[in-house]
């Protein structure tokens, strides 16, 4: 009977793990291992773009890609992991409970928006964390055109001034005017605890964020937080009231809760501590990748962030190394010392930075051109051709 590598999750980390594992087995002429991906759908959901309109289009089918490289796909949602018995429990496409056993497990289940218990958030706020949520927001925005003119109808409050909050907010003026009319008096407000516009992104990049915000008409309520949300708006910590029919919550993510079912140390975001080869520390047969892995990117103390930039490379290494363990060949230590940021700033353009200190290299249209290339080409799956897919899955590909 073939050994089983089970990859839970078909996002950036999971997809690239599957491609990289089958690549290494092919290089060694080894066909005695079955590589299986278990996930709710055989598609890559392009989550970095969910702040954009038409979110329903932001998926890429990967069933044919998996077929091309010999990956088995199981449609289901995992809810239990038994590390001792080496099996997972899941609900299949028909709603029936099933069990899948493994020899090696790679957890690649990603992250979810950390929804606080702030009054009214669960009932009245929107988010762009999952595709269904982004579609719900879009439907809501379109419905605003059916409401009577009011300042609240024309106002969007974005809670959180981090990466997702900024991209969502700077895209919003154009989205609102496309629905309410080019001359609509719209207001977009970012509520953030920072003392300076874009403070969480770093000093240099914050200058571009402030400039873009001014040009686009996005205002910031700094040193503030939302303490309550209702159907008509938000209440801030200082008691101020903002009337808004649309509130978008973007205040951070946590690793998928399944990490708690695997014995091991976790960081404050729920990510499993892994060694240089992405094996969960203390677990010989379990690897973690993407947003569920707390992985060092270099020798300077930096760790992978919950971004597709890191998940793609983490996936390539996790797949290679889980296959290498079975083959008895040397693994490849994960290393990703180069860190870049490309932040979309709506109609202003985009800002591209390099380094963990985010040194600005491109702005406005030059930055936007690069951002468009990243969003529409670079992060999408390779063609459903085994040679092309395996070439792209090589963990030693130079990182641009």
Automatic annotation (TrEMBL):
Keyword Secreted in annotation: no
Gene Ontology terms for molecular function: NADH dehydrogenase activity
InterPro entries: FAD/NAD-bd_sf, FAD/NAD-binding_dom, NDH-2
Ranges of residues in domain FAD/NAD(P)-binding: 4-312
Keywords: FAD, Flavoprotein, NAD, Oxidoreductase
One matching Pfam family: Pyr_redox_2
Domain of life of the organism encoding this protein: Bacteria
Ranges annotated as spanning the membrane: none
Protein family (similarity comment): Belongs to the NADH dehydrogenase family.
Protein name: NADH dehydrogenase
Source organism of this protein record: Pseudomonas deceptionensis
């Amino acid at each position: 009977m073939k050994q089983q590598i089970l990859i839970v999750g078909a996002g950036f980390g999971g997809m690239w793990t599957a491609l990289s594992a089958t690549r290494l087995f092919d290089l060694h002429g080894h066909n005695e291992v079955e590589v299986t991906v278990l996930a709710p759908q055989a598609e890559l959901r392009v989550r970095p773009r969910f702040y954009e309109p038409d979110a329903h289009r932001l998926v890429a089918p990967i069933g044919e890609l998996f077929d091309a490289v010999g990956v088995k796909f199981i449609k289901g949602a995992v809810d239990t992991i038994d590390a001792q018995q080496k099996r997972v429990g899941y609900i299949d496409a028909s709603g029936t409970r099933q069990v899948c056993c493994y020899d090696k497990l790679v957890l690649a289940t990603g992250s979810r928006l950390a929804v606080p218990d702030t009054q009214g958030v669960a009932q009245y706020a929107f988010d762009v964390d999952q595709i269904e949520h982004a579609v719900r927001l879009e439907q809501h925005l379109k419905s605003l055109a059916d409401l009577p003119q009011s300042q609240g109808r024309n106002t969007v409050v974005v809670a959180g001034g981090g990466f997702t909050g900024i991209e969502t907010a700077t895209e919003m003026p154009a989205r609102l005017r496309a629905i309410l009319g080019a001359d609509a008096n719209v207001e977009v407000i970012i509520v953030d605890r920072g003392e300076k516009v874009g403070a969480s992104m770093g000093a240099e990049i914050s200058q571009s964020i402030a400039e873009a915000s001014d040009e686009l008409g996005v205002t910031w309520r700094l040193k503030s937080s939302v303490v309550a949300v209702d159907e008509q708006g938000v209440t801030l910590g200082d008691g101020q009231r903002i009337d808004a029919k649309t509130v978008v919550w973007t205040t951070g993510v946590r690793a998928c809760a399944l990490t708690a079912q695997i014995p091991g140390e976790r960081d404050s975001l729920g990510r499993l501590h892994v060694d240089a080869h992405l094996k969960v520390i203390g677990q010989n047969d379990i690897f973690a990748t993407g947003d569920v892995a707390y992985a060092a990117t270099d020798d300077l103390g930096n760790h992978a962030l919950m971004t597709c930039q890191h998940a793609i490379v983490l996936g390539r290494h996790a797949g290679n190394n889980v296959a290498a363990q079975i083959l008895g060949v040397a693994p490849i230590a994960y290393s990703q010392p180069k860190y870049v940021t490309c932040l979309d700033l709506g109609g202003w353009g985009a800002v591209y930075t390099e380094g963990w200190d985010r040194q600005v290299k491109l702005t406005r249209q030059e930055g936007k051109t690069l951002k468009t290339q990243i969003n529409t080409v670079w992060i999408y799956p390779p063609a459903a051709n085994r040679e092309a897919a395996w070439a792209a899955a090589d963990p030693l590909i130079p990182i641009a």
